[in-house]
Amino acid sequence: MKLEMELDPQQKKAVDNPTTPMAISAGAGSGKTRVLVERYIKVIIDGLAETEEVLAITFTIKAAAELKLRIRERLIETELEQPETKEGSNAQKALLTIESAPISTIHSFCQSILKKYAIEADIEPDFKILESNESNLVYKEIIQRVTAQFLRTNNEKEKELIRAVGLNDLRSIAETMLNDRYKFSNAVNSTLFLHRNGKFEESIENMLEDELSILLNSVELKSSIDDLKKCIPLDKSDTMAMIRENVLDLFEEILAQKSNREKLSKSLELGNSIVLRGGRKTSWDEGEKDRVKSSLKTIRAVIDDLFGGEKELKFMNNETAEKLLEGLELYMSRLFKEYDYTMSSLGVLDYDGLLFRAMILLSERKDIAAFYRQQFKQILVDEFQDTDDLQMDIIKILAAGGDNIPVLFLVGDENQSIYKFRGAEVSNFQKMIEETGIEGPLYITKNYRSQPDMIKFFNSFFSSFLGDTDNGYEVSQTFREKLGDTPNVQFLLPIANNGEGVSNRELEADLMARQLLLFVGAESISDGEGGERILKFGDIGILFQKMTSVTVYLDKFEQLGIPYYMKTRSGFYDRLEILDLLNFLRAIEKPNDDYVHAAWLRSPIVGLSDNALFLIGTGVGFSTSLSSESAN
Question: Which stretches of the chain drop beneath a pLDDT of 70?
Fold first, then answer.
């Protein structure tokens, strides 16, 4: 197997200095994983380390398997091309051990640590890893027990917390704590530290300034306010009309306030004032009541998403806030103790617990941390921008403390992280460079995957938001041919509604649907075999930032006869076939539950139509009808 292309100068610098700790920042399509593979190969064939002495970490099981496959292929290639050399001999030797080489996810690596040192970590040697749905069930039981204990408390600080927060919010806080124990405990302890050192007000003020800036520059908020201004009610005494007027007035008051706390107060007042019930369609031009309702819903969601459960804390004085934080600290302590006890009793760990236990073990047992530092001469981490604080701290323990530390090589993209919803922090990339003192970041900017016109568009478009930087993606036409003269990017803007009572989203959905109809059957694409074929609907993918308004688009697709398949959630228990099987089992368990019977009879397992279900269920109920049908 020949390499498709030679390394460019930036890639070559990263590969040819295998003893230099280094971080490279590279975007999708720039060949960054190939650079990591080539660096791994360089370490092996130059005799700098054996395969068992190189720890390679990536962030999905699939990516780890692909990484190992690519390394194996390059070792085979090196052995065949240089059979009588030291490099070829080292490659041949490495092929004998590559299958057992530590190339894995960070979770798998931590699992191997805990299996080896289970007694030292105070866990069962044959512990089981809980899947996320199993963890959620255990969390609910833990929260129920701890909340019951908390309600019986005589501690004044705990009572104050219950009075201030309420049981429902306390349970929500508990879920957040258990889902991100490391980050939450650090946050509570840091906030208490700020209180006790007189810096709480300053930290709250800085946080408010950032969040209010995000709010007032929100595209969704501005668009919704503009929509409200355009929709003029026929009857100003209408309930929805009065809500609209109040929201517009409050928004102007927010802009007029000078104090951040006053701006916050008015923002929360605005969010709380929005009620989505009431109002008559006759008080509006056609379609405008629904448009106003949609805009109000968006405004409320933007405010709730941004400020969430923090709002009470931002209004408190130091003394009150400290009492609540101390109550929260006590609650957190109870919760985590119950969590540890439950997990230990069951002999299980969840995914975060796996990392947390490994981090604690490596932190407290210096001898074990030293063992791994001596075992690994090199640590290579792919997609480092997807690390959260806990994962970063584990890597830091191994690569930035003590003597004989491994050579650390990080690969990431400072511009993006696909795991922010799991707590990944893009800033960890720069933080790790600063704290470990490694060289970098070295920017690899050539893009070998995307169309040149697309890269030019994105660099130009986003520079107005992110500012001009030196690390944009350079367009390389050497390795990616331009697809003719057809533009790769079409920027479509919906035309203003001119009082027709149609929301911007509806206009956008209509524009998108009609554009799809123009494309399909008229455009040609590659058939993958050197020829061309006509574009089909199945060749097109549509990405949404959020799924909250997706029904507007789907309704338009159905109206214009555009077939679609929607993938919203990827969890095993959310798949339609699994839900159908669960409904079937529930129907067996609960023979008198008409709703469950209807669900599985309508599913592809049985495939009854709505009309058939109506006929079966009329008057007597599904279960009775099924019994009589069976008898007949």
Answer: 1-5, 185-208, 307-322, 401-403, 414-427, 462-488, 494-503, 548, 568-576, 593-596, 609-632
Amino acid at 338: E
Q: What letter represents residue 201's amino acid?
A: E
Query: Is there a contact between 59 and 423 (Cβ–Cβ < 8 Å)?
Result: no
**Cα pseudo-dihedral 184, 189, 195, 199, rounded to 10:** -80
Structural domain boundaries of the chain?
Answer: 9-105+378-444, 132-204+316-346, 218-311, 504-559, 572-631
Neighbours of 263 (CB within 10 A): 21
pLDDT of residue 354: 93
CA distance 99 to 120: 28
Tokens of 337: 């103790």
User: In angstroms, rounded to a whole number, what is the distance separating the alpha carbons of residues 505 and 550?
Assistant: 9
Joined together, the tokens standing for residue 537 give 């609907």
Report phi then psi at 411, rounded to 5.
-125, 125
pTM of this prediction exceeds 0.85: no
| Beta-bridge partners for 129 | 349
What distance in Å separates the CA atoms of residue 195 and residue 199, rounded to the nearest whole number?
6
- Could you write out the DSSP letters of every residue in 349-406? E-HHHHHHHHHHHHHH-HHHHHHHHHH-SEEEESSGGG--HHHHHHHHHHHSSSSSPP
Cα(7)–Cα(207) distance, integer angstroms: 45
Q: Distance (Å, rounded) from C-alpha 418 to C-alpha 423?
A: 10
Check residue 332 and report its DSSP letter: H
pLDDT score for 611: 62
Residue 68 is predicted with a pLDDT of: 95
Q: Which amino acid is at 6?
A: E
Report which of 243, 239, 247, 238 is spatially closest to residue 268, judged by C-alpha positions.
Answer: 247
d(CA 115, CA 492): 55
Strands 446-447, 474-475: pairing is: parallel
pLDDT at position 38: 95
Distance CA 580, CA 596 (A): 10
- Mapped onto helix, strand or coil, the DSSP state of residue 226 is helix
* pLDDT at res. 476: 46
Quote the strand ranges of 71-225, DSSP E. Answer: 103-105, 128-129
Distances (CA, A) of 43 to 17, 373, 377: 9, 17, 10
Who contacts 551 (Cβ-Cβ below 8 Å, separation ≥6)?
Answer: none
Task: Give the span between the Cα atoms of 321 and 313, in whole angstroms.
Answer: 6
**Three-state DSSP class for 592?**
coil
As beta bridge partners, residue 128 has 348
Under CATH, to which class is 9-105+378-444 assigned?
A: alpha beta
Radius of gyration of the CA atoms of the chain, in A = 30
Rounded Cα distance, 440 and 480, in Å:
28
CA 154 to chain CA centroid, nearest Å: 40
Measured CA distances, 418 to 157, 179, 384, 387 (Å):
39, 18, 11, 10
